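Final report, Chapter 2: Outcomes

The project's central promise was a pipeline that accepts a single protein chain and returns its three-dimensional structure in a standardized token representation, suitable for archiving and comparison. That pipeline is now operational. To close this chapter, we reproduce one record exactly as it appears in the project archive, with the input sequence first and the structure output second.
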Amino acid sequence: MATFGLIEYKDASPQVRAIYDDIMATRKTDWIKELIYIAVSVTNNCTYCIYSHTASAFGKGMTEAMFKELQAVIGMANETNKLVTGYQVEVDERFKPPLRRSGE
């Protein structure tokens, strides 16, 4: 069970929209979801998915520089995930459900 589901821009709260707006302004693009699909596809080793989502992202305006930066972030995230798993780092209690929401 996911802790948080994907939030579409149209359904986002003002706080989430502010984050999306910042990402889109920084990237000079009006979309971000395809990049998430690429990251998940790489992590899951789905060659078909990597090809299709990468093609779609380039078709929507992703640049070579954006693609390279995305791969670096994916690699770093996967590396740190493996290190934490290998060292068997215990999860902090504050990160376990029930999670405290802002305003609580």
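Archive annotation: The first helix runs from residue 14 to 27.
This record, like all others produced under the grant, will remain available to the consortium after the project formally closes.
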